[in-house]
Amino acid sequence: MKSSGGGGMYTVQKLATLAGVSARTLRYYDSIGLLTPKKNESGYRVYGCAETDRLQLILFYRELGFGLDDIAKLLDESGFDETEALIAQREQLMRERSRLDLLITNVEKTISAKKGESRMADHEKFEGFKQQLVDDNEAAFGKEIREKYGDAEVDRSNAKMLGMGQEQYEAFKRLEQEILEKLEHALKAGEPEGASGQEVADLHRQWLGFTWGSYEPKAHAGLAEMYVADERFAAYYEKAGEGAAQYLRDAIIAYTEKQSE
């Protein structure tokens, strides 16, 4: 991959000033092998075009919330393409900008309503938060969910989420929390097939009803399998206790089998 241009050679201090980071940060990146300067003919450690471009990518990824270990793996991965990486970063930043624009608009409408200059419908009060929830889910699980259920189904689910009114959205969030609380209790109370486990599975079905067009036991069971197959899903439910994701999966499987009888 060619450098994006520039052509300068920078000392630690000069590159730190140019990039808006501290010299200490650059030295730390060097110490962990993330950004290593080269030596010029005089033996001084300097950063050339390749190192400058790499630092730009590092800082982009840091802004997007990546840890240094993850950044190192990405940049050093065989076949890593800087242009493709930048395109992906741009898309993520565009999504973030859209989310922030929506939140800013929401705040402006709220200020106007508080001043008595306009009226704000209840559903407008939560648009920014619902959009963020949709965007977060898309970023974290969108690829897997779309592959499993198809674009049309996921788009309908997202539209239903964004169309929620105030009371619906609040009920949705309350039920989400109730599931975690009941799941924590059920883990200690007995088997997934028992009353406590089946109560959690039924609450989970009700929760899906807020975003699903219609309920299908087979689809519910398929989603439950993803809770244990994908560690990102599992991590969410493990907040209720160790083994919670597996317990929920087993409870839902038992529940859906009864529904299919």
Overview of the molecule:
By secondary structure, the chain is mainly α. It folds into three domains: 10-76, Multidrug-efflux Transporter Regulator, Chain: A, Domain 2 (Orthogonal Bundle), CATH 1.10.1660; 82-145; 166-259, Orthogonal Bundle (Globin-like). Helix content is 70%, strand content 2%. It has helices spanning 12-19, 23-31, 49-63, 68-76, 82-114, 127-149, 151-162, 166-189, 195-208, 217-229, 231-237, 244-260; strands spanning 38-39, 45-46. Strands 1-2 form a two-stranded antiparallel ribbon. A hairpin with a 5-residue loop joins strand 1 and strand 2. Helix 1 (12-19) crosses helix 2 (23-31), helix 6 (127-149) packs antiparallel against helix 7 (151-162) and helix 10 packs across helix 11 (231-237). The protein is extended, with a radius of gyration of 24 Å. The protein starts with 11 loop residues before the first helix and ends with a helix. Residues 9-77 form the HTH merR-type domain. GO terms for molecular function: DNA binding; DNA-binding transcription factor activity. Keywords: Activator, DNA-binding, Transcription, Transcription regulation. This is MerR family transcriptional regulator.
How is the secondary structure organized here?
Elements: H1 12-19, H2 23-31, E1 38-39, E2 45-46, H3 49-63, H4 68-76, H5 82-114, H6 127-149, H7 151-162, H8 166-189, H9 195-208, H10 217-229, H11 231-237, H12 244-260
GO molecular function, one term: DNA binding
Domain HTH merR-type: 9-77
Pfam families: MerR_1 (PF13411), TipAS (PF07739)
